[in-house]
Amino acid sequence: MSQEDVELARRAYAALNDAFKAGDLVPFLREFCDPEIVFKPAGILPETAEVRGHDGMLRFAIAQAEAFEEFRVEPQQYIDAGDRVVVALRFGGLARHTGLDVAFEAFYVGTARDGKWTRVDTYVSKAEALEAVGLPERAW
Fold first, then answer.
1. Residue 56: which domain range?
2. Among the residues of 66-140, which ranges form H helices?
3. This prediction's pTM
4. Interior CA angle at 83 toward 35 and 73, to 5°?
């Protein structure tokens, strides 16, 4: 099942970047996210509260993207973790107020059911993400 989820993650991140460029995240959410999705930020940015559902995800994503002229999400690696997928990624872009190109690193652990994400937990370190799925750090 997880190899299918790895492919789902590849398609979803490509579609997410397209959605940010188009300025419309609703079609992305409908295609890739369960209506009851739960997203847990890592606390890298000011938002730390868990968000739920398409509306919560939309508010969170818009708040993140507003800080940038151009926002991008760049997956670096995908790891099949059995019933979950670990994705190392960089996100950021051209900061709206400073004009600087900034990037943050995060590690996402996604859980999917029936071809849609039901939960995504974010971690600040590779070790935390791998621990969350029960993999040793050398698996990276």
1. 2-139
2. 126-132
3. 0.89
4. 60
